[in-house]
Write a structure and sequence with these properties.
Strand content: under 5%
Mean pLDDT: 88
Structural class: mainly alpha
Order of helices and strands: HHHHEEEHHHHEHHH
Low-confidence stretches: none
Helix content: over 70%
Number of strands: 4
Length: 290
Amino acid sequence: MSDVIGLAISALNLGSLYALMALGLVLVYGILRLVNFAYGDLVMVVGYALYLMRETAMPWLVMAVIAVMAAMLVSVLTERIAFRPVRDKSLTAMLVTSFAVSMLLQTGAQLFISPRSRVVPMPDMFTTTVEIAGNMIALRELIAIAVSILMLVLFTVLLNRTVLGIALRAAADNFRMTRMLGIPANMVISAAFAISGFLAGVVALFWLGRGGSVTPDIGLQPLIVAFVATVLGGMHSLLGAVVGGYALGIITVVINTFMPEALTGYRQAFIFALVIVILIARPEGLVRSK
């Protein structure tokens, strides 16, 4: 029983982070039909922002807030400077632009900071463990679960109870019609990129907390995770992104736990193979779009 509780906490922790990451990706995709390949690099932005502030006297929580705001700012600036000029061109142009933005961000980090791994300051509570039902659980995982659930609740309230949220949902359903109804497109898209940057920024704090370091290419894995979770849950559904994130988290924890040690080096291949099997059975994803 105690092992089951330990597995459940691990799956909930991983699934929560995957769900938030996927939510940010699908929010932009729903409006622009753009798979933003620069999205994962926002994790890098948070990491280097924390690294650059490591010798200041600011409390870690203040540094974390500034780092998340930096991710939001970079996300909005990429939309304003890179994506907006090509928004009315073609999907291919936006896709190539997202690759270019990703490469520019990574190259900028290599040139102006360092191409090597850099230690990111993390609070002591991220390395603390607590005992739950005989399992030693990292306190960081419990905080990640609580923060993720809180953010999902707030995001749901934002979408259903505010004018901005209703505009975002309408734009995600039919962006052309939303523009014809007079809703300012630039405002909606900028808000989507800002929220997307905020979600990636919060996830980055816990993602970086696992390894304690940042590299220019650290955003690749969270980007792949977000993309797979989005496809698994359903590319056209915000709920699907959340469901896909938790489903991928459960699949990852189960395979990591029960896979023979000799095959652990191939676990990513087994995870993606299982995702492909699910998509063969449900090609539209786990959640059907309306």
